[in-house]
Amino acid sequence: MSRIGKLPVKVPNKVNVNVEKDKIVIKGPKGELSMQLSNQISIDNTNDTITFATTNNSPQAKKLHGTYRATVANMIKGVTDGFEKRLDLQGVGFRSQVQGKSLVLNVGYSHQVTIPAPEGINLAVEANTKVIVTGIDKQLVGQVASDIRSVRPPEPYKGKGVRYEGEYVRKKAGKTGK
Question: How far apart are CA 77 and CA 67, in angstroms?
Fold first, then answer.
């Protein structure tokens, strides 16, 4: 059995968890998230804790055990606190701005790159070079941040590009002339 799957998940007072036969719905102060459930995992919601168990010993059930526990824990954290990813733009003339629900990037191309924000994601800009992606769904926040980074990933010679805050980019030496 999964070590992570065995751990119970604490449910805060302000969060409401509703487990149906094939769906779990979690409501909190920031919003509502739901997830389809497999019949190979059983969920027990008692005394403000959620526990997970496998219904059979198949390899698929063992794989899903820890995954479901981690996903539900992330859903609870998302509806109470939310998730945030920060990106930095490094390069001369690189800047960003929010227009409506879209992010407009000027990152050295001959044109501006527009990235629309999906439902449930908020985009913000600080000082024209810092982009903040926030939302309640951890997977969606990470995917949007990855999509923004993929517009111009950091290159290894000068370090220009879009990078996560705190990301270290190892630089190469470049050409050496004789």
Answer: 15
3-80 matches 83-164 in fold? yes
- Rounded to the nearest integer, the mean pLDDT of the chain is 91
CA angle 175–177–109, rounded 5-degree value: 35
- Domain 83-164 carries which CATH code? 3.90.930.12
Give the fold, CATH level 3, of 3-80: Outer Surface Protein A; domain 3 (3.90.930)
> Within 13 Å and on the Cβ side, how many CA atoms surround 135?
19
Domain ranges across the chain: 3-80, 83-164
For residue range 145-154, what is the model confidence (pLDDT) as tens digits? 999 999 999 9
Q: Which residues are CB-neighbours of 74 under 8 A, at least 6 positions away?
A: 138
In sequence order, the 6+-apart residues with CB closer than 8 A to the CB of 12 are 28, 48, 76, 80
Contact criterion met (CB below 8 Å) for 64 and 4: no
pLDDT digit string, tens, across residues 161-171? 999 999 898 99
pLDDT tops 60 at residue 135? yes
Query: 2 pLDDT band (50/70/90 cuts)?
Result: low
DSSP annotation of 135 reads E
